[in-house]
Structure formats: structure tokens, C-alpha cells
Specification:
Layout: E1 10-12, H1 22-30, E2 35-38, H2 42-51, H3 58-63, H4 71-79, H5 103-121, E3 128-133, H6 140-149, E4 154-158, H7 165-173, E5 178-181, E6 184-185, E7 194-197, E8 214-219, H8 222-231, E9 238-242, H9 275-279, E10 285-288, H10 294-302, E11 307-310, H11 312-315, H12 324-335, E12 340-344, E13 354-358, E14 380-383, E15 389-392, H13 398-403, H14 417-424, H15 451-454, H16 462-469
Parallel strand pairs: 1-11, 2-3, 3-4, 4-8, 6-14, 8-9, 9-10, 10-11
Antiparallel strand pairs: 5-7, 12-13, 14-15
Helix pairs in contact: 1-5, 2-5, 5-6, 6-7
Length: about 475
């Protein structure tokens, strides 16, 4: 089954914080499909890996190619530890993102994105993509610019309505200032707030114009896709249509919310996308969520799709950024039928349903974790009754949440995704009492049937996934 480099049959999902890292994306792209890096918290993962000694020197190799002067020297001076962190030493923290962040802080975000994409593209000429969340409003422009400096070929965005992103890509390609409208809870009519990123504030003489990456919006249905085609600020090049079976954040069910006996949202016929409606838009699209099987790829292409997006199988392969021991635990549990995937309507501070994985060795999710908000990636902007502009998160300390106008009941059941997902890739923060932040694992429903793919094996590579999906051969997994 052949496809052009521009329209590969398989797009690898852009998962979590660092799960879809540069190693995974590079492997997938070199195998002829679209490898994708996650664009979430790349500034944090960069500086923490530098503190851990930059094993293999990969980060420093990429840093040598960053074109904006002065930034690399500043970051290395502050964060690089040649011998790694001493035992039980906490990671140093970056300042949290703000709508009016100074250029120095935006430069670190730009640098993190550049490094990840540069490494993913190094050593081959195939396209590489980056996945971003629209809901993470504040770092997105600086992240996009850094990815474009490294030559990213495709930008994929969901978890919101990315209507302004295509126009921002156009402006950033010319090193021009770009801005986005910020969602502000409690805002009044006419109370618009925007965040602006000006590349020229980072360097006095930008280089030649950058390539404008293709833009694929991640949508939950044809109606949103149609609106973006008509009303986006620039060109939309395609879509990923994601069902509620996908991991991470899911779109909420259409209509009045309903829940089952376990508290999971109930999806219905209105949440099933008709591929013919997508095909009628005249743009390529890929189907995502529960597509991790060769028969699903055949069916998707027969229905008019360019192919499928697959996350779960790639999330557990050897090239994944998930910590190896955690990956081993989960695969063993999945092979034994001892995992559960729950769509939690309250876990995410964003308010979107979020998939959580449970397995026998899972750190007890009911254990009392002190509420700490020191990464702040999912904080949202809000106006207090006295019109102050604040950033708040329902997973932060309860007294801080309430002081910023949040309701106590809205904080119930929330999880700190920022620290949990960072811990999943082995970069968990060390707290004052010596406790290390436990991992938080998200996965699509395909994890429940991954045994069909594993066939008794507990290790495999990205190419094994691709060969399986393309029907080329059985899995040639490595020894357990």
C-alpha cells in the first residue's frame, strides 16, 4: 500500500509530555509515515534533561544549530549539569507562562521546540509533524516559531478550535508578529485579551523566510471541520478526525451530558463521524481513535480517508519517550488483561474528558497528593469579581483556587496532569519530603486489545507497528 510523502497512510499520534519524542517521530518518519513530536512542555523537558546530564549529547548537538544568538549560552549556563543532578535533588523551575511573558522566557520555549524538531528531522529527508493543544494558549506561538525554525513540515492542533492558527503560521513564516485571542473566564463584552509573539524581539536580524508548514486541524466532527475551512484565518490543509476512543483529551459528548454508573460520559450516534461528510470537504483527512489494526486502515481508505492516526501502539514501542520500566509494567499488565482505561470527566483541569489508565502497579490514585501547581501548563485566565486578571487551575492548592474566584466544588476530582505526565517520561519532580511525583498514564481504548498485536511479546519497535498496520508481515518484536 503506497502513499506520497505528503499523504502517508499512517500518522503517529502526538502524545502526552514527551511520549511522542524526537526518537519516536524520527523512527516513524524514516519508515515512510508521518512522525509527530508532542509540542507540550518542551521547554520543561529540555531543561530537565540538561540537568540530568544530556545523556548521549543529543540536546547539545541540536543546540549548536539554534540560529538566535545568546539563548543557548544562557540556558546551558543555568541548567546544564555535566554530571547530572545529585540524588534527591529537585529540578530547577522555569517561570510559568504569562500572556505578557518577556522575550527571554519566550526564547526558552522557542528553543525547546527547535531542539525537538531538529532532532526528529536529523539524518533523513522525510516530513515531521508537531502536535499542539489549542487549550494551552500561552506558549503556542513561541512553540510554533521554534518548530518552524527547525523546519517542521506539519502542524496538528486540537483540544479546542484552532481558527487563528493558520494565519499565525503565515505571519511567523515571515518573522512577523503573530497574536491569538485568549479565552478569559468572566470577561465582559469588549474585554478582549490577546497574546502576541514577535520574533523580531528575539533577534535583531532574522534570517530568510521560513517554510510555512501544512496545518491539520484535529476535530471531533464534520461541522467543526467545515467551519474551519470557511472561517479560519488562513489555509487549512487537512484534518484528523478523532473519536472518543482516542487517548488523552476527548471532545465532550454532543447534547446534554449523560454519565454511566462509573461516572464516564456516554457517547452516542451524534458523536460518530460520517466519513462521507469529511470527504465532501475536499481535503485529506485521517481517522483517529481505535484504529490500531490493519483492517481499520483498509476500511478508512475505502471510506475516502487518506489513512489513520495511531497513538496507543506507538506509545508503548521502544522508541517511545515513556520511561522503560513503566512501559514494561503496562505491556505486561495489558498482555495479562489487567489494565483498565477510564474516561474521567473530572480529572483534567481543562474540563475536557480525559482517559486514565489503571494497572496493578499503578501508584494509588486515591492517595492524598499535596496540591502543588508549579508547572502551570493548564492554568486558565479569569477575571475576578473586582476585575483582576488571574491565572488559576482547579488542581492548584484549594485556598489559592478559591481566592481567585474558583468554586470549591469545581476542584473536586481534579488531577495535576502537568506533573503527572512529566513523570511518565522519567522527569518527575522531587518534593521537599523526598517524594517523587508519580506518573499519570493516558492511553486510548486500543490498549485493552493490544494483546492481538503483541502475540505474547513484550517489546517491539516503531517499524513493527508500521509493518503490522500496513499488512506487510507479522510483528517481529524483540525478546521480552
Amino acid at each position: 500500500m503506497d502513499a506520497s510523502p505528503d499523504l502517508p497512510p499512517i500518522i503517529q499520534g502526538g502524545m502526552g509530555v514527551g511520549v511522542s519524542g524526537w526518537r519516536l517521530a524520527r523512527s516513524v518518519s524514516r519508515a515512510g509515515q508521518l512522525g509527530v513530536v508532542s509540542g507540550t512542555a518542551l521547554d520543561t523537558t529540555l531543561v530537565r534533561r540538561l540537568e540530568d546530564g544530556d545523556e548521549g549529547g543529543h540536546l547539545r548537538r541540536a543546540l549548536e544549530h539554534f540560529p538566535i544568538p545568546g539563548v543557548v549560552e544562557q540556558v546551558l549556563r543555568r541548567f546544564f549539569r555535566p554530571d547530572g543532578r545529585p540524588p534527591a535533588t529537585p529540578y530547577r523551575l522555569l517561570s510559568m507562562h504569562a500572556h505578557d511573558a518577556p522575550p527571554e522566557r519566550q526564547a526558552i520555549t522557542t528553543l525547546g521546540a527547535f531542539v525537538e524538531v531538529w532532532l526528529a528531522k536529523h539524518g533523513h529527508a522525510r516530513p515531521v509533524g508537531m502536535n499542539l493543544l489549542t487549550k494551552l494558549q500561552l506558549p503556542n506561538l513561541a512553540t510554533l516559531y521554534g518548530a518552524m525554525l527547525a523546519g517542521v513540515d506539519v502542524v496538528l492542533m486540537g483540544a479546542g478550535i484552532p481558527r487563528e492558527i493558520p494565519g499565525a503560521l503565515d505571519r511567523l513564516a515571515s518573522h512577523e508578529p503573530a497574536s491569538l485571542t485568549l479565552e478569559v473566564a468572566g470577561a465582559r463584552d469588549g474585554d478582549e485579551l490577546r497574546t502576541t509573539f514577535d520574533p523580531r524581539a528575539l533577534w535583531s536580524v532574522p534570517g530568510a523566510a521560513l517554510g510555512r508548514p501544512r496545518f491539520y486541524a484535529i476535530v471531533g466532527g464534520a461541522s467543526l471541520a467545515s467551519m474551519l475551512v470557511r472561517k479560519a484565518s488562513g489555509r487549512v490543509d487537512g484534518f484528523v478526525v478523532e473519536s472518543p476512543l482516542a487517548g488523552g483529551h476527548n471532545a465532550p459528548p454532543r447534547g446534554a451530558p449523560r454519565f454511566d454508573a462509573l461516572g464516564e460520559p456516554i457517547y452516542g450516534a451524534r458523536d460518530v463521524v460520517d466519513p462521507t461528510e469529511m470527504a465532501a470537504l475536499g481535503l485529506p483527512f485521517w481517522i483517529a481513535g481505535g484504529e490500531s489494526h490493519p483492517e481499520r486502515l483498509v476500511a478508512a481508505r475505502a471510506a475516502g480517508a487518506a489513512g489513520i492516526q495511531v497513538g496507543t501502539l506507538f506509545a508503548y514501542c521502544d522508541e517511545s519517550g515513556m520511561s522503560p520500566e513503566l512501559r514494561r509494567q503496562l505491556l505486561a499488565a495489558a498482555a495479562a488483561g489487567e489494565v483498565a482505561v477510564r474516561t474521567d470527566a473530572r480529572a483534567s483541569p481543562t474540563g475536557y474528558p480525559f482517559k486514565l489508565v489503571r494497572w496493578p502497579d499503578d501508584p494509588d490514585p486515591t492517595a492524598a497528593r499535596p496540591r502543588v501547581c508549579d508547572l502551570g501548563g493548564l492554568r486558565s485566565l479569569s477575571r475576578t469579581p473586582d476585575r483582576r486578571l488571574v491565572q488559576r487551575c482547579p488542581s492548584e492548592p484549594l485556598d489559592a483556587w478559591v481566592a481567585k474566584g474558583g468554586l470549591p466544588e469545581d476542584a473536586l476530582g481534579r488531577r495535576c496532569l502537568c506533573n503527572g505526565l512529566t513523570a511518565t517520561v522519567g522527569l518527575g519532580q522531587v518534593r521537599r519530603d523526598g517524594r517523587v511525583e508519580p506518573p499519570l498514564v493516558t492511553s486510548g481504548d486500543a490498549l485493552l486489545s493490544i494483546g492481538d498485536f503483541l502475540r505474547g511479546r513484550l517489546r517491539y519497535g516503531a517499524r513493527d507497528v508500521i509493518d503490522w498496520l500496513l499488512g506487510r508481515q507479522d510483528v517481529h518484536a524483540k525478546d521480552a
